[in-house]
């Protein structure tokens, strides 16, 4: 999917993250968790890490972690996908068909997220039977915090939240920045947990990970989004002022932001097809190692809280079988979420332990 020029956004839109600093030891711990737990790399695996100049140092740590357990682990630099996508894709294709890895990781920048949506890429991975980590625009918080979690615990907690949410009929989301939206849920539609564990040939997805999601059947209210998804994420980061999206009957009816250029770009994007402005996904983050937003969607989707996507609903998971060429995640900062009237998160924090059910107190 193509998108707006990332260079067009002003840096004044952004504010710094409240995340703690990441040490080299944190980065190495995240690389080992990726290799040992998320991808379950063993001695017989052939590991290929794809990176660019900007992500080279972090990718080298992943290769070093893989070399501990696999006899064959290598790094391959690819040209910038944002500069010349066809040339970069051709280089990725040569690397995969030439090396025939059993484990792959993509860490390079891709501001429009084109590779993750490119069916040819996933066909390449299927052809060699690789399990895969999509680490788009890998940065220090993603590797040193989001991936340095205990992923067996991420999986356990994500599945627990999924099981608790099953059968819910309504969800309400509020936060201090102006989010106030109510979702109507179909109890017969499934909730899906993304755990970040990719152990079988052909399995793969984004990392860091930890989320549970569904597709609502209705939504009304306002979303104040502090982080925007692809293709806007690289240029907007963590917004100083949230974008306010007004939703009625499950569809976008208006949006506002102090930056008129950004607002115009967003309006044009959500006018691309019939369902581009339709609520496609409601998701809660379940990686409790992630304590604040970073501005990088790769990380922020997993922070305890929620993201709400306009556009394609991924019907194979959600049971919502309509289509859009658009899918933009809107991350809500430190929300309070209630399900059927009972709290799921309060100010971005889960109760510990989770209640046995969601019956209102």
Please name the defining characteristics of this protein.
361 residues; single chain; 28% helix; disordered N terminus; 27% strand; five-stranded parallel sheet; twelve-stranded antiparallel sheet; 11 helices; alpha+beta
The portion of residues forming beta strands comes to 25-35%
Q: How many helices in DSSP terms?
A: 11
* Oligomeric assembly: single chain
Radius of gyration over C-alpha positions, nearest whole angstrom: 20 Å
What's the overall geometry?
A: globular
Biggest sheet record: 12 strands, antiparallel
Structural class: alpha+beta
List low-confidence stretches: 1-10
The helix content is: 25-40%
The average pLDDT is: 94
> What's the helix-strand series?
HEHEHEHHEHHEEEEEEHEEHEHEHEEE
What features would you describe in this structure?
This protein is α+β, with helices and mostly antiparallel strands. The protein contains eleven helices and 17 strands. The chain is 28% helix and 27% strand. A hairpin with a 2-residue loop joins strand 16 (336-339) and strand 17 (342-345).
């Amino acid at each position: 999917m193509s998108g707006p020029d990332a260079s067009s956004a002003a840096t004044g839109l952004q504010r710094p993250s409240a995340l703690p600093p990441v040490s080299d030891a944190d980065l190495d711990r995240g690389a080992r968790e990726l290799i040992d737990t998320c991808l379950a790399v063993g001695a017989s695996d052939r590991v290929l890490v794809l990176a660019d100049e900007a992500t080279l140092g972090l990718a080298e740590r992943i290769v070093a972690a893989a070399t501990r357990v696999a006899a064959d682990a290598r790094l391959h630099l690819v040209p910038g996908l944002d500069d010349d996508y066809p040339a970069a894709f051709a280089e990725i294709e040569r690397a995969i068909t030439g090396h025939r890895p059993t484990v792959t990781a993509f860490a390079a920048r891709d501001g429009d997220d084109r590779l993750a949506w490119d069916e040819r890429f996933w066909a390449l991975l299927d052809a060699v039977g690789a399990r895969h980590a999509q680490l788009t625009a890998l940065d220090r918080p993603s590797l040193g915090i989001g991936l340095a979690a205990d992923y067996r615990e991420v999986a356990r907690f994500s599945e627990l939240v999924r099981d608790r949410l099953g059968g819910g009929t309504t969800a309400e989301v509020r936060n201090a920045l102006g989010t106030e939206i109510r979702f109507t849920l179909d109890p017969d539609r499934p909730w899906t947990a993304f755990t970040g564990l990719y152990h079988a040939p052909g399995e793969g997805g984004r990392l860091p990970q930890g989320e549970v999601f569904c597709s609502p059947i209705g939504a009304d209210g306002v979303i104040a989004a502090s982080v925007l998804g692809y293709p806007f994420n690289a240029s907007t980061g963590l917004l100083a002022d949230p974008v306010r999206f007004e939703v009625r009957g499950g569809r976008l009816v208006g949006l506002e932001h102090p930056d008129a250029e950004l607002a115009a770009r967003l309006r044009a994007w959500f006018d691309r097809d019939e369902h581009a402005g339709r609520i496609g996904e409601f998701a809660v983050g379940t990686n409790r190692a992630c304590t604040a937003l970073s501005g990088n969607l790769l990380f922020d989707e997993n922070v305890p809280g929620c993201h709400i996507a306009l556009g394609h609903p991924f019907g194979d998971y959600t049971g919502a079988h309509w289509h859009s060429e658009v899918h933009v995640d809107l991350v809500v900062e430190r929300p309070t979420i209630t399900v059927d009237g009972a709290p799921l998160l309060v100010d971005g924090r889960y109760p510990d332990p989770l209640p046995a059910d969601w019956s209102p107190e």
